[in-house]
Amino acid sequence: MRATLSLLIPALLIFASCCVSAQQTAANEITALQTRFKEATAKLDAEEEKADAPAKAAYLKELEKIRDAAKAKAQLDALIEVEGTIKSITDGTEAPKPKLLAAALATARANYDKAHEFALRQGEVDRARIGADYDKAIAALEVKFTQAGDVESAKAAREARRVLLTVDARVDGPSTLFVRKDGLYWVNGNNGKPGPVYVDGRRWDPRWTKPDQGRGQDRSEVYRIPILPSTNLKINLVAVRDHLEDEGIDHRTPIDVKFLGSEIRILIPDPEAGTRWYKFVFKAN
């Protein structure tokens, strides 16, 4: 018996060592793939920011003309509104709700949105290609590890599937976010309208059919996104908090998610007092 054990124990140690080595090699493959994807997207982010710079500069110039007109007419309240908008662009903060200059600021924003969309059109194509290449490569790793019988590594590859979409939104009461393959839009209840919203880290100030009303039933424009492979997605609510940068999930009424074929409907009841930032992460199912 002792002789048998003396032979068996080293064999088990060698087997365990091989398993650990295989899993470490698999982890390195996954990490290397993720690193290449992050580097490619970071390069694309820089290229898109450079491409968008002229559109943003033109937008700021248009706002400065509106500001100068308000100064010339000694319209203090109008001046405060437009300066708040300019500051929100340069600082990346929330713009105050305009009143006196709502029409002029909305026109300036619409002009920028059109130029911004045109500037990033090629980037969207490249982003979709990079994402598709990553999805294909990570799926191939999952198959490879599964066929090798390395279940833990296969599970790790599946967990490393690309985040297809992230949405951060400040919500005040019942609101519904609809997700399509090519875009997002809101349907609001009787409360304050959602906003601002960040889609994959980019700010979106939804335009509504009733832009002069900050509260009440309304529907937003569709915010275009790089086309998702499908609406069969895994949706995780990863944070509900007071401030955008905070983590954790505050106690609120649970959200309700329904898959409607071509759309996903995410109802955010939020009947509790005060606004909250909701963060959603979408992955392939």
Please estimate the helix content.
40-55%
Structural class label = alpha+beta
Major sheet description: 6 strands, antiparallel
- Uncertain stretches of 5 or more adjacent residues: 11-17
Short description:
The protein is of the alpha+beta class and 285 residues long. It has 5 helices and 11 strands, in the order H-H-H-H-H-E-E-E-E-E-E-E-E-E-E-E.
Task: Describe the structure in your own words.
- This protein has 285 residues and is α+β, with helices and mostly antiparallel strands.
- The chain has two domains: 160 residues, no CATH class; 122 residues, no CATH class.
- It contains five helices and eleven strands, in the order αααααβββββββββββ.
- The strands form two sheets. Strands 2, 3, 6, 7, 9 and 10 form a six-stranded antiparallel beta sheet that branches.
- It is globular and about 75 Å long.
- About 2% of the residues have low confidence.
List the helices and strands and how they pair.
Elements: H1 2-72, H2 76-91, H3 102-119, H4 121-147, H5 151-159, E1 163-171, E2 175-179, E3 183-188, E4 197-199, E5 202-204, E6 218-219, E7 223-224, E8 233-241, E9 256-259, E10 264-268, E11 276-284
Helix pairs in contact: 1-2, 1-3, 1-4, 1-5, 4-5
Distinctive features:
single chain; 285 residues; alpha+beta; 2 domains; six-stranded antiparallel β-sheet; 11 strands; globular
